[in-house]
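Let's practice the habit of predicting before peeking. Look at the sequence and jot down your guess about where helices and strands might fall. Then scroll down.
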Amino acid sequence: MGREIERKFLLAGDGWREQAHRSCYMRQGYLCGNERASIRVRVESGAANLNIKSATLGVERDEYQYPVPEAEAHAMLDTLAGAQVEKTRHWVDHHGWVFEVDEFHGANAGLIVAELELDDADAEFPRPEWLGDEVSHDPRYYNTELARHPYSEWERGE
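Done guessing? Here is the structure:
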């Protein structure tokens, strides 16, 4: 069984930008979802995947990922996917750890979130000065929720 352990953070500054070593645009859409799981298709830099994640709140979730032909993924996004998310992912090295910083576009423009995948939910890691509050347990920051309830629709102070 696949397992994802991921912590998610808001950012407290732009210092991460000078540390980013790679970036790529991603488009993803959700084919279906329920109270137990979601199924997503994502296209990024010449690759495409179907991804199934458990709808578990917190830092640990079941996750399965399967490659699909890129042309088929685009067709699924164009004809089958409902809500979609567009973002540029930046990979940022910090003392041997790789943070994935997602800079959202479209209806989620203005939102930037850093994610860190871990081998253990309680793993210690160095916190860069640009890392802000943790939002791992706030479902609003999950991509499935951002697709359905975009950041631009949030009431400020939410």
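How did you do? The longest strand covers residues 20-33.
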